[in-house]
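Q: Please design a sequence for this.
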């Protein structure tokens, strides 16, 4: 089971990296906010020869060189320390998404690259909630059960859902 989950995480990250690649700068220092298992950065680094620093509120890393833990509010970095910051499917788990966006902007000198699931209409919201439950909370519990990641206080439960206009 562990092998299958790792394969799924790697394939999902490869697909995302390929989709992102044409839009990513080819130089600079990057911060990945909400790194999760580390698979996204691992796959992007296969395509780009850039420096990445990974950060998250809990250590769920499976691959990578480790990450910097932060409290979800204040990023422990200097103003404009990074050329670019990535936030890939992170805001739904934040207590205060607007403040995290402001904080991300503070540490980023050029551009914040954000990808976030959104919905339009009540049926799309239902589908989004189901997908977030399966790829977030349920996948997180399963990952802990099979010892892919360590036990932690985070539930990875979505707190926010965004329309396309937000």
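A: Design:
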């Amino acid at each position: 089971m562990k092998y299958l989950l790792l394969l799924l995480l790697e394939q999902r990250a490869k697909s995302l990296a390929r989709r992102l690649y044409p839009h990513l700068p080819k130089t600079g220092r990057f911060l990945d906010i909400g790194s999760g298992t580390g698979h996204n950065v691992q796959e992007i680094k296969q395509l780009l020869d850039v420096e990445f620093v990974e950060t998250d509120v809990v250590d769920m890393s499976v691959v990578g060189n480790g990450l910097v833990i932060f409290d979800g509010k204040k990023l422990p970095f200097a103003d404009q320390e990074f050329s670019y910051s990535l936030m890939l499917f992170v805001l739904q788990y934040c207590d205060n998404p607007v403040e995290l966006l402001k904080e991300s902007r503070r540490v980023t000198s050029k551009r914040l690259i954000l990808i976030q699931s959104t919905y339009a209409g009540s049926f799309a919201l239902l589908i989004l909630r189901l997908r977030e439950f399966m790829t977030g909370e349920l996948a997180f519990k399963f990952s802990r059960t099979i010892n892919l990641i360590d036990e932690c206080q985070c539930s990875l439960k979505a707190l926010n859902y965004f329309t396309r206009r937000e």
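Q: Thanks. Anything notable?
A: The two ends are 38 Å apart (CA to CA). The chain is about 40% helix and 20% strand.
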